[in-house]
From TrEMBL:
Protein EC: 2.3.2.27
BP terms from Gene Ontology: protein sumoylation; regulation of transcription by RNA polymerase II
Organism of derivation: Urocolius indicus (Red-faced mousebird)
Protein name: RING-type E3 ubiquitin transferase
Catalytic reaction annotation: S-ubiquitinyl-[E2 ubiquitin-conjugating enzyme]-L-cysteine + [acceptor protein]-L-lysine = [E2 ubiquitin-conjugating enzyme]-L-cysteine + N(6)-ubiquitinyl-[acceptor protein]-L-lysine
Single GO term (MF): zinc ion binding
UniProt lineage: Eukaryota, Metazoa, Chordata, Craniata, Vertebrata
Gene3D superfamilies from the UniProt entry: PINIT domain, SAP domain, Zinc/RING finger domain, C3HC4 (zinc finger)
SUPFAM superfamilies associated with the record: SAP domain (SSF68906)
Length: 499
């Protein structure tokens, strides 16, 4: 580090040109770029080149030829008091000393005074999960642990870095997702310091991020309507681009965080943010599963139900998306899902663009973007079957539409009475009663051999009206002297005579 800081502009340009980095800019910009090189790409070849340039610069002073060796040991020794990354170190952790420390060089190589491991030491590094809506273009700062410097609950961790001309050009030439928001961004990601598996974004308590002279907005908490349930905060990459200097000038970032026992790491990335429409187009390009493969999957699932010892002869699949209760347009599901039911990829991607959960709406199991497939067989069925909202897959892989119940029913809502030849003839009404428009039949008005003139009658009277008429007839019979025949038939109550 001290060797790099002692270089002149020509030495810095030779070093940066050696690794293919930009050589333009003022001296402090070249120094920052060279220190970043030492931080991220300090390979044996780069270190050898730095040593070579240093010895060439001081070759005329023979007494100083042997001086670089003590100097290159002095920097790690001074910074080892700040490093808690090497758990085997016997050096106690102390606060940063302000004596003989070059802060620009320190911040260019370290975050919160935390040094990177020597190249010869191999130790698992913190990794962050890949986010479907973010494509990583460059890694500006590898995940680095936030180390508390004192016993205070509120800690600050500073870092400085500069963008290369190529990175600045990528940002400036990128399209806008919305006014003032570029698609190419510099984002800050924070996660737990855990090397066992890729980590999801996780904010520490009391987080605040300051970029140069302004604070950056951080997603807030989702309100919780359930009693006793703590509100949740959506943890996602924090966009710093709008507060940065889009030039070769250095940017200073300060992360304020709460020290409550858990360890966190932060990283800086140059990313391209994607939209749900772009992810949908990519899925349509590379994620369609051929109809024949889907058909083979249906046959395999129907060959034997895994949850039962009884063979399955068919399974119903709805053509309605469970997310929005609308007909499917792009039927989609995760390859890891065990069901044949699909959901609509358009709405699924839009939902995760606003609030990323990546959970299947059918089985509530993880359905990440890289596991999604478009069902080619169901896509074909949707085009061929426009008048049904449900289909049934059969054991041979074929399918048939299932109509709605009201469409499949071919019988009227009211019962039908079919009068046979053996029904007794209807009796005439009792004396004193009159026909209504001559509609009530008499024993002499039937057809030949006493057959009813009509065979099928649509019932228009309910049972209650029939019972009322019978009660009225019985009252009239009581008033007459002699017994009178009653209007009753041998068939069940509720059925009326044929007209």
């Amino acid at each position: 580090q001290n060797m790099v800081m002692s270089f002149r502009v020509s030495d810095l340009q030779m070093l940066l040109g050696f690794v293919g980095r930009s050589k333009s800019g003022l001296k402090h910009e070249l120094v920052t770029r060279a220190l970043q090189l030492v931080q991220f790409d300090c390979s044996p070849e780069v270190f050898k080149k730095i040593k070579e340039l240093y010895e060439t610069r001081y070759a005329k002073k023979s007494s100083e030829v042997t001086q670089p060796q003590p100097q290159q040991h002095r920097a790690p020794e001074a910074l080892s008091i700040h490093s808690s990354y090497d758990r085997g170190s016997t050096v106690p952790r102390t606060s940063i000393s302000t004596t003989n420390i070059d802060y620009p060089a320190l911040y260019g190589k370290y975050l919160n005074g935390l040094g990177r491991l020597p190249p010869k030491v191999t130790k698992p590094e913190v990794r962050l999960v890949k986010l479907p809506f973010y494509t990583t273009l460059d890694e500006l700062l590898k995940p680095t642990e936030l180390v508390p410097q004192n016993n205070e609950k509120l800690q600050e961790s500073p870092c400085i870095f500069a963008l290369t001309p190529r990175q600045v050009e990528l940002i400036r030439n990128s399209r806008e997702l919305q006014p003032g928001v570029k698609s190419v961004q510099v984002v800050l990601r924070i996660c737990y310091t855990d090397t066992s598996s890729p980590q999801e974004d996780q904010y520490p308590p009391n987080i605040a991020v300051k970029v140069n002279h302004s604070y950056c907005s951080v997603p807030g908490y989702y309100p919780s309507n359930k009693p006793g349930v703590e509100p949740k905060r959506p943890c996602r990459p924090i966009n710093l681009t709008h507060l940065m200097y889009l030039s070769a000038a250095t940017n200073r970032i300060t992360v304020t965080w709460g020290n409550y026992g858990k360890s966190y790491s932060v990283g800086l990335y140059l990313v391209r943010q994607m939209t749900s429409a772009e992810l949908l187009q990519r899925l349509k390009t590379i994620g369609i599963k051929h109809p024949e493969l889907c058909k083979a999957l249906v046959k395999e699932k129907l060959r034997l139900d895994p949850d039962s010892e009884i063979a399955t002869t068919g399974v119903r699949v709805s053509l309605i998306c469970p997310l929005v209760k609308m007909r499917l347009s792009v039927p989609c599901r995760a390859e890891t899902c065990a069901h044949l039911q699909c959901f609509d990829a358009v709405f699924y991607l839009q939902m995760n663009e606003k609030k990323p959960t990546w959970m299947c709406p059918v089985c509530d199991k993880p359905a990440p973007y890289d596991q999604l497939i478009i069902d080619g067989l169901l896509s074909k069925i949707l085009m061929e079957c426009e008048d049904a909202d449900e289909i049934e897959y059969l054991v041979d892989g074929s399918w048939c539409p299932i109509k709605a119940e009201k469409e499949r029913s071919c019988s009227p809502q009211c019962p039908i009475l079919v009068l046979g030849e053996d029904l007794p003839s209807l009796l005439s009404p009792p004396p004193g009663s009159s026909d209504v428009n001559g509609l009530l039949p008499t024993p002499n008005t039937n057809g030949e051999n006493g057959k009813a003139p009509a065979d099928v009658v649509d019932l228009t009277l309910d049972s209650s009206s029939s019972e009322e008429e019978e009660e009225e007839d019985e009252e009239e019979d009581d008033d007459d002297e002699g017994p009178q025949p009653k209007r009753r038939c041998s068939y069940e109550k509720g059925l009326v005579s044929a007209c």
